[in-house]
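User: I'm curious whether this sequence folds into something compact or stays loose and floppy. Could you predict its structure so I can see for myself?
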Amino acid sequence: MSAVRAFAPGRTELAGNHTDHQGGRVVAAAVDCGVEIVLARRASSVARLESEGFAPVEIDVGDLAARADERNTTAALVRGVIAGLGAAGVDPFGFEASAKSTVPGGSGLSSSAAFELALASALLAQAGVVLGPVQLARIGQAAERDYFGKPCGLMDQLAVALGGVAAIDFSNEDEPAVERISFDLESMGYALCLIDTHCDHSLYTDEYAQVALDMFAVARFFGAGRLCQVPESAFFDRLEDVRSALGDVPALRALHYYQENKLVDKRAEALRSGDFPAFLEYARRSAASSAAYLQNVSTADRKSQPAMVVLALADALLEGEGAVRIHGGGFGGTVQAFVPRDRLGHFTRCIDGHLGEGSCKAYGIFGKGAQAQCL
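Assistant: Here's the prediction. I'll summarize afterward.
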């Protein structure tokens, strides 16, 4: 087969902050930026990939065990994706590939998930194999979790695999429930802006990981694997026991889970019915829950709080219109803002005036998920 070109979009969460790994619900959307990979099979067992701005990656596909010295590297993702495809029945083969990305690294737009699924899609096209979006997403998730070392949920990869806007329920680990939502943000008179805090959230992987660990600890306190298996009433009945056994932060993060799950349902219904003012109000409540209960806005370094500063600045500029919230994993990365279109120019200029040209960008919803085609 000749070379193939694959593309996978970035993703934004419209609702559901740190709920997916606990079997919760989200509304996610693919956005109009992403990762493109051009890949050709080669006769040897060596896989080589070049990425703009990064050192070339070269691995032997005969050795696909996870390596501690590759943690947090592109090589780990490449090795993990090939290993995942192998487990799915796709025999590993050597290749030559090049990658380029329009997803800002460390921005919270899931550049890693876009890379994983673009690579997997290219390899599948070369092998002549088709996998469903959930299976494709799981291969990317395993590469990021087991090889790269980031304990992520499935939302990022599944949103990238699906494209468009989707409400996803993760309570069934084997088969998440997916509902497509037809939604046109522009017709509502708003723009979706993502603001670069200029603080790479990948620098705070440990703090990010602790959020999920705290929630899992609360679930285990009740003899469960995930918080979706613990009724909210049972949690509140034993709230003081949880605080005593685990501390206040895990208790608050579990409280956020229950609060956010209900807000996901309200926002999904608002999008279905076209009631965007209601969506914005619930987004503001979600923002407050993430900051106060989930606590994924402020970093442990109290002298440096870039995400909180950006949230405050954007909120002040909106003057009660629209909504602004932490985006993705938090602890840096991006801030999400829903901005009235008649204020977009002023809003962007002010943000860029504070943070630098190009810090605030408006994104459109991308209707297609990860895909590949022959050249």
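Summary: The domain at 4-182+367-374 is CATH 3.30.230.10 (Ribosomal Protein S5; domain 2). The chain has two domains: 4-182+367-374, 186-363.
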